[in-house]
Every structure is written in C-alpha cells, then in structure tokens.
Amino acid sequence: PDIMVHFSAEEKAAITGLWGKVHVEEAGGEALGRLLVVYPWTQRFFDNFGNLSSASAIMGNPKVKAHGKKVLTSFGNAVKHMDDLKDTFAELSELHCDKLHVDPENFKLLGNMILIVLATHFSKEFTPQMQAAWQKLTTAVANALAHKY
Amino acid sequence: MVLSPADKTNVKSTWGKIGGHAGEYGGEALESRTFASFPTTKTYFPHFDLSHGSAQVKAHGKKVADALTNAVAHMDDLPGALSALSDLHAYKLRVDPVNFKLLSHCLLVTLACHHPAEFTPAVHASLDKFFSAVSTVLTSKYR
C-alpha cells in the first residue's frame, strides 16, 4: 500500500517524548529476544547466534542483545523521520529483501514485540493513546521496510 | 500448536494473579486499546455506544474476560469449554479471524502494563499461545 502515513502533532509528541526515555540497548535486546522466544520460527534468521535453546539462553545471548540494539537504534531513525519513512528505510528495505530474504510479516511481529517491551517498561504511562501512536509507527516502519520487495 | 504443561502453569498462575481485575482488563484491552489502535475493529459494534467510558463496552469487556477465565479453568478441553462461543462466532457474529490477533495483542499489552514483573518472556510466550489456541477454537466452525 502506497499511502503516506500522517502523524498528528500529538502523536509525534507522544512518540518522541517516550522515545527519549527508552534505554535503546536494553530494550532492543529485549524486543528481539522476545521475538525469538514467543515466535521460535523467527530463529531461522539467526543460525549463527549460538545458544537459543531456552528463553533464558535467548534473553542472555550476547549476539541477540547486540543485534537487538542495532535494530532498535535504527528504529530511532524512524522517530526522527516520521514524515519520510519510505525514503529513510529505502536502503534497509532493499537489504532485507535482496540480501537477508526476510518475510515482511516478521517486521509486524517485531513491531509488536517493541510495543510489549515499552508496555513492560512504562506501565501506566503506556496509555491506550500512547499505544495507538506507537502502533501506527511500527506499522508504518514495517510497511516502509517492505516497500522495495 | 500445543499448550505444554509449562504453558498451562504459566497461564493459570498469571490469570490467578490478575484476580478480580480480569473484567477491568478486558474492558481496557477491548475498548481503550483495540478500538484506539485498530479502528477497523469498531465496525463490529455499530449498535454500541463507543464513547469513552461507555457502560456497554465495559460490560462487553467483562464478558470477554469472564469467557477467558472459563477457558483458563478448562485448558485441557478448550473445544468443549468454548463450544457455544465457537458456534456464536461462526454463525452469528462472524468476526473476521484477523481480529482475534488484534484483540489478543491488546490483551497482552494490557497485562504487560499492569503486571510488568510477571510478564517475563516465557509467560508472554505462554499467554500468546493460549490466546492463539482460544482464537483457533472460536474460529474453528467458520467453514
């Protein structure tokens, strides 16, 4: 779908405000870890990550943490360029399609894991309105990443 | 997809900790979160007052939560325990299957917000599986 996503001023403020408080390294590792725990078939992309044999092994795996940090740091770019996600993620889209061969469905799954990590970290502050704004962002990023397929 | 003994323990334990809040969480997941994040879900409630704090939506959230509480109590026989609801969703409500994932996700977010310490990755996985199993039963007679 080639529809430009529009974020209201309130949505942008909510997203940026929360992002400022996120520990990207920790949250990134957690989000990726949860993806691999909750949807074990996603481990297919990470054969060389070593021990993924249990939830605790996955969450403690240094490669998972490092890669999670990389992914969420890149996500930070989305927060800075909410009005221009397609261009911002054009190169990464090509990468994920042509080199990494990742089914875009996985972007949605990871997006939901990011949301759940935010929910556990921010609790009551992760209000329904906050969730809705972030839901919009993760969906838009997933679509941007799928754009070059 | 099968619920392991560990999954069942995780689900029962977490649901037990929710205690009397199940109805409240059901309302929050359904009304506040699902309708807000996924406006298309509102199309199934044209007959409801969907304004914030609506008594109808609160009641419906509680209904859903009570059904889930029943499911938790009968995890060894979900098809049996949910048979009537399965009929209802197949022949009367006909909610498109995609929506069960949306509500399940919002239930998980609600639980994660209210019980962050309990919501470990392993518990998260078990709950996701449980909601998925419930959704499968509820859509099992669709065609």
UniProtKB/TrEMBL annotation, chain A:
SUPFAM superfamilies: Globin-like (SSF46458). GO terms for cellular component: blood microparticle; haptoglobin-hemoglobin complex; hemoglobin complex. Transmembrane segments: none annotated. Keywords: Acetylation, Heme, Iron, Metal-binding, Oxygen transport, Phosphoprotein, S-nitrosylation, Transport. It holds the Pfam family Globin. One of its GO terms (biological process) is hydrogen peroxide catabolic process. Residues 6-149 form the Globin domain. InterPro entries: Globin, Globin-like_sf, Globin/Proto, Hemoglobin_b, Hemoglobin_oxygen_transport. GO terms for molecular function: haptoglobin binding; heme binding; hemoglobin alpha binding; metal ion binding; organic acid binding; oxygen binding; oxygen carrier activity; peroxidase activity. Belongs to the globin family. This is Hemoglobin, gamma A.
TrEMBL record, chain B:
Residues 2-143 form the Globin domain. One of its GO terms (molecular function) is organic acid binding. Coiled coil: none annotated. GO terms for cellular component: blood microparticle; haptoglobin-hemoglobin complex; hemoglobin complex. The keyword Heme applies. It comes from the Eukaryota. One of its GO terms (biological process) is hydrogen peroxide catabolic process. InterPro entries: Globin, Globin-like_sf, Globin/Proto, Hemoglobin_a-typ, Hemoglobin_oxygen_transport, Hemoglobin_pi. Keywords: Acetylation, Heme, Iron, Metal-binding, Oxygen transport, Phosphoprotein, Transport. The keyword GTP-binding does not apply. Heterotetramer of two alpha chains and two beta chains. Belongs to the globin family. Involved in oxygen transport from the lung to the various peripheral tissues. This is Hemoglobin subunit alpha-1/2. It comes from Mustela putorius furo.
